[in-house]
Amino acid sequence: PNRNYTSFVWAENSAGRSENATFSEQCITDFAQPDAIDAPASLSQNGTIFSLTFSNEPDEVNGPV
């Protein structure tokens, strides 16, 4: 099904949090969203690079994530 999505991305460090970078467009796809996605956890950080991981792989029954 076709859906509208809005996503926000920001950076945060000891100086504070940046303004949101916003993307808001229509998403045209033959797939539906997953029923649930676990919140990601932050892995190692060195001040400029970080990684995110999920405790479980997202359910792709409704299509690829």
How many runs of DSSP E, i.e. beta strands?
6
Strand arrangement across the biggest beta sheet: 1-4
Give the number of domains. Answer: 1
What composes the largest sheet? 2 strands, antiparallel
Measured by DSSP, the beta-strand proportion falls in 35-45%
Low-confidence stretches are none
- Tell me the span between the first and last alpha carbons: 14 Å
Number of helices: 0
Roughly how many Å is the radius of gyration? 15 Å
Q: What characteristic shape results from the CA principal axes? A: flat
Structural class: mainly beta
- Percentage of residues assigned to helices: under 10%
Give the rounded overall mean pLDDT.
75
Q: Would you give an account of this structure?
A:
It is a single chain. The protein has 65 residues and is an all-beta fold. It has one domain. 0% of the residues lie in helices and 42% in strands. It contains no helices and six strands. The strands form three sheets. The chain has a two-stranded antiparallel ribbon. Strand 5 and strand 6 form a beta hairpin.
Brief write-up:
This is Fibronectin type-III domain-containing protein. By secondary structure, this protein is mostly beta strands.
Topology diagram in text:
Blueprint: E1 3-9, E2 12-13, E3 16-17, E4 21-27, E5 41-45, E6 50-53
Antiparallel strand pairs: 1-4, 2-3, 5-6
Please name the defining characteristics of this protein.
mainly beta; two-stranded antiparallel ribbon; two-stranded antiparallel sheet; 6 strands; 0% helix; flat
